[in-house]
Write a structure and sequence with these properties.
Layout: E1 2-13, E2 16-27, E3 31-35, H1 42-50, E4 57-62, E5 68-71, H2 83-87, H3 92-108, H4 111-114, H5 117-136, H6 142-152, H7 169-181, E6 187-191, H8 199-211, E7 215-219, H9 223-229, E8 232-237, E9 240-244, H10 248-290, H11 293-311, E10 337-348, E11 351-362, E12 366-370, H12 377-385, E13 392-397, E14 403-406, H13 421-429, H14 433-442, H15 447-450, H16 459-473, E15 477-481, H17 489-501, E16 505-509, H18 513-519, E17 522-527, E18 530-535, H19 538-545
Parallel strand pairs: 3-7, 3-8, 5-6, 6-7, 12-16, 12-17, 14-15, 15-16
Antiparallel strand pairs: 1-2, 1-4, 8-9, 10-11, 10-13, 17-18
């Protein structure tokens, strides 16, 4: 059943047209993956649905009484409360419904109400309606439902008294999701809810979405998550929405089939247009030569045919090539034995983190590092880089190894935040301005972005800039710490292709399960201080654990 309709809307932001004539229908049980390149306006579209951004033209119509819950990318929780206190804070609508219920109950105790049969009947009817509304939002079992949802999302009773300040970014998102979901809004809008979640957290999020009884619309770059939960994929690109009735993998296949059909239709139509234009030219030439009214009318008739095709919007567009970053790392062989850890132990804040770890990487291997948040994955990379010293054991790098490092929090850019990407690239390349600009354009930066301060760039833009630095380093060992976190899916696919062609060795820390399946042939799990190895990608890891 349809619950919300976007009708032919046009939206302008900061003097730029974001959408034109955009329409969309959302059903009451839909599981929609909203995909598209960074900057396409996916988060803004959520704000349009919420009424925070008004369309310049068109309208949003919703079924009467429809409630929308929104989980933004950035979450702020009260700093002075515990996890459970925060989770139990009632959503504004539920708090208002409870307050109204109390007010009606107070009226029933008023002698002027219970002494007036007509007024009493009216007040009882209001009470009944308000009780139904309150129950629809799970108000009568709010506290127990909060605890059930927290458990579903991976929290134990031991976590409940943790201060919110001690929670990870992923945990904060899950607490905010519980606050939203407890009142069962008809549509849940989730803007990158999986960011900062480890694999266990992503599995729990998947289970939550699959069990949610109403509509969910999710923005995410995690293709594995989208494959698991989406029944419909909606692509937002160049101000237009295109609906595909299937999960992300189905969308990719169907999109390619549509692209091939459009290209074939475009070629066929262009041949027909060329034929008509040649006929028009020939008839007009004959008409001038022999002053023939018959030939002039024939030329006008065919020209009118072309004009009507344009008026009716029947001209098929040429399939545009998407603007992708041109990431490619020219690796080289170097040492056969790239990296070896022998009995390595390390502590963090006086707590043992990695104990007696052994690891061997040979030339050409692709190894993924997985484990729960806080297990020591980033610490392992910092040990290899020499930024941390082990308490015990030895770390051996091959004699001809050059490392290219991608940091999860973009720390490699910290010293340049007030400078521009252009200045940074020129400094590293020792190149001319035009050469540096061309390099940044190949990495999908605009000319304007190349000249603005790095601190003003988005997360995705900083990610691409970090990858550019890795390219310029010309490494034969890549240490990548969550490289897909801020990239759109098209850029992640470019990264996957580049890693496939890379001649060196790769060690990747990632929670992106689809990405790991595409890029690694061995996994190392860090859990409870120990390193365990599994051959294959994430799917093989699940099979080895009996979880597939």
């Amino acid at each position: 059943m349809q619950v919300l309709q976007v009708n032919n809307i046009t939206v302008n932001l900061a003097g730029s047209e974001l959408y034109r004539g955009l329409s969309w229908t959302i059903g009451d049980r839909d599981r929609i993956a909203l995909v598209g390149p960074n900057g396409a306006g996916k988060s803004t579209l959520f704000r349009v649905l919420l009424g925070e951004v008004e369309p310049d033209r068109g309208q949003i119509t919703a079924q009467r009484g429809i409630r929308i819950g929104y989980l933004p990318q950035d979450i702020s929780l009260p700093a002075d409360k515990s996890l459970i206190e925060t989770a139990l804070i009632k959503p504004p609508e539920l708090a208002q419904a409870e307050e109204k219920l109390g007010a009606i109950e107070s009226q029933l105790a008023d002698p002027t109400v219970y002494g007036d049969e007509a007024l009493l009947s009216q007040t009882l009817a209001e009470l009944e309606a308000q009780l139904l509304h309150f129950e629809a939002m799970n108000g009568n079992r709010h506290a127990s439902h909060v605890r059930e949802l927290l458990a579903m999302l991976g929290f134990s009773a031991d976590d409940f008294e943790l201060p919110t300040a001690a929670l990870s970014g992923g945990q904060k998102k899950m607490v905010a999701l519980v606050q939203l979901a407890v009142s069962a809004p008809d549509i849940l809008l989730l803007d990158e809810p999986d960011n900062h979640l480890d694999m266990a957290g992503k599995n729990q999020l998947e289970r939550f979405i699959l069990n949610y009884p109403k509509c969910v619309v999710i923005i995410s770059h995690d293709r594995y998550l989208l494959d698991e939960v989406a029944t419909q994929t909606v692509e937002l690109a160049e101000g237009k929405l295109t609906t595909y009735h299937g999960n992300y993998s189905w969308y990719l296949n169907e999109k390619e089939l549509r692209r091939l059909r459009q290209q074939q239709q475009y070629v066929t139509q262009q041949k027909e247009i060329a034929r008509l234009e040649a006929m028009i030219e020939r008839f007009e030439r004959w008409a001038k030569q022999v002053l023939s009214r018959k030939h002039m009318l024939a030329a006008r008739q065919r020209r009118r045919m072309l004009e009507k095709m344009e008026e009716r919007g029947e001209i098929i567009d040429k399939v545009a090539d998407p603007r992708l970053m041109g990431f490619k790392v020219d690796g080289w062989r170097g040492s056969k034995k790239v990296l070896e850890l022998v009995d390595v132990s390390v502590a963090f804040d006086d707590q043992p983190l990695i104990i007696d770890a052994d690891l061997l990487l040979r030339h050409g291997e692709r190894v993924g590092v997985i484990g729960p948040n806080g297990a020591g994955k980033t610490v392992l990379l910092r040990l290899i880089l020499g930024e941390l010293a082990p308490l015990a054991g030895e770390i051996k790098l091959g004699p001809s190894i050059r490392i290219g490092y991608y940091s999860q929090e973009h720390q490699t850019l910290d010293a340049w935040l007030d400078r521009t990407p252009l200045e940074l690239i020129r400094n590293i390349q020792n190149s001319s301005e035009s050469s540096a600009v061309n390099f940044l354009l190949r990495m999908a930066f605009s000319y304007e972005q190349a000249r603005q301060a790095i601190r003003t760039l988005s997360g995705g833009e900083r990610s691409r800039l970090q990858l550019a630095l890795v390219m310029l380093r010309k490494p034969n060992l890549l240490l990548l710490d969550e490289p897909t976190n801020n990239l759109d899916i098209a850029s992640v696919e470019v990264l996957e292709d580049a890693l496939d062609e890379f001649l060196g060795t790769v060690l990747i820390v990632s929670h992106d399960r689809y990405f790991l399946d595409q890029t690694v042939d061995r996994l190392v799990e860090i859990r409870a201080g120990k390193l365990r190895e599994f051959h294959g990608g994430y799917t093989e890891f699940l099979e080895a654990q009996g979880l597939s």
